[in-house]
Specification:
- The structure is a single chain.
- Helix 2 crosses helix 6 and helix 7 packs across helix 8.
- Helices cover 49% and strands 5% of the residues.
- A 3-stranded antiparallel β-sheet has the order 1-2-3.
- By secondary structure, it is mainly alpha-helical.
- The chain has one domain: Orthogonal Bundle (hpI Integrase, Chain A).
- The protein is globular, with a radius of gyration of 18 Å.
- It contains 8 helices and 3 strands, in the order αααβββααααα.
């Protein structure tokens, strides 16, 4: 009977960086392309595949949105483009002059996922982050920090491109754990 049904795996809470750790990672990156890559991953809550598939025309700086095309589930969606990213993106464009993809590797090809992972891991080491970090961890951090700042769970669901609210609600458990560490004034 065990072979008829797959064994259920325990769902673990998403691993994320706190706001200070994210700031430290972004502050140690000096290369404009690398800084733009990590800033968009975190600031827009993108999946790695979504980042490397971004094309120049997907960025609408006037309306401050990025269009994610044919993401997971073959759906398009729009995410916010933080105002603070605009000067960084302009600097990146002036230096690197991308032609097709927002982030290009050699000969105008898409940037490789492994390169993005390497950039983040090197930045984490420089920032003295003693955790194994991944691009998806920045996405988890984005969602967790939005929730901690009072964003509506349905809005976060839309930004992340989740079909089911249940998928997004995992972040409420993460923030519930953080809230459980809050002391009553009586315990100060």
């Amino acid at each position: 009977m065990d072979q008829l049904f797959p064994k259920r795996t325990a769902h673990t809470l998403p691993k994320y960086l706190n706001k200070e750790e994210v700031k430290r990672i972004l502050s140690v990156v000096t290369n404009s392309k690398h800084k733009a890559i990590l800033s968009i991953l975190y600031g827009c809550g993108l999946r790695l595949s979504e980042l490397i598939n971004l094309k120049i025309e997907d960025v609408d700086s006037k309306n401050e949105v990025i269009t994610i095309r044919q993401a997971k589930g073959k759906k398009d969606r729009q995410v916010m483009l933080p105002k603070s990213l605009l000067p960084l993106l302009r600097e990146y464009f002036e230096i690197h002059l991308p032609k097709i993809y927002l982030f290009e590797g050699q000969s105008q090809a898409q940037y490789s996922p492994r390169s993005v992972q390497s950039i983040l891991q090197q930045a984490a080491v420089l920032a003295n982050i003693n955790k194994v970090v991944s691009p998806h961890m920045l996405r988890h951090s984005f969602a967790t920090h939005l929730l901690e700042n009072g964003a509506d769970i349905r809005y976060i669901q839309k930004l992340l491109g989740h079909n089911s609210l249940t998928t997004t609600q995992i972040y409420t458990h993460v923030t519930d754990v953080a809230k459980s560490k809050v002391l009553s004034p009586l315990d100060f």
